[in-house]
Design brief:
Structural class: alpha/beta
Helix content: 25-40%
Oligomer: single chain
CATH architecture: 3-Layer(aba) Sandwich
Strand order of the largest sheet: 7-6-5-8-9-10
Shape: globular
Strand content: 25-35%
Number of strands: 10
Amino acid sequence: MKSELINILCTKSVNFADEPIYKLVSGRTSNFYVNCKPTTMHPRGMFLVGHLVMAAVHDITVDGIGGLTFGADPIAMASAFASQLIGRPAKAFSIRKEKKDHGISRWVEGDLHKGDKVVVVDDVVTTGGSTIKAIERARSEGLEVVRAVILVDRQEGGMEAVSNHVESVSAIVTRDDLLEKWNRIQH
């Protein structure tokens, strides 16, 4: 499954340039850019992502899987769907970037309750800032964050930063995985 996901990511989501022309969330520029949404919102990509996230949490029982909107949303939904298929149901949830100013003001949307064990997911990690923000907001709502699972680790220190906030962190795919496949496709 991982190999097939790498193929889809390289076809639909990965961009390389000779010069650092891509602006990242961190404000830095890079010659490597991954927009996971074309993969995570593709039927086969969604299937693979959901099952690979569930494989990454096979050793724990969780009540929910989610992260900061919008990058984490398709991953959370795919994972929740796959969790039901494999008989280990975990609810999807989404963490707002801004608190709404009406109704019930909260960071986390979904059918979760204080004390629920959750996994925070993210599509791409560079510095880890978005994932850390999601972890902090989930905890502020009373959720117990037991693991973080990242779809693509850019291998620029983000995983290490996230590991300072949650005991268990893993990536499904790394920049090296994508570069290796990309180079084979291009030559």
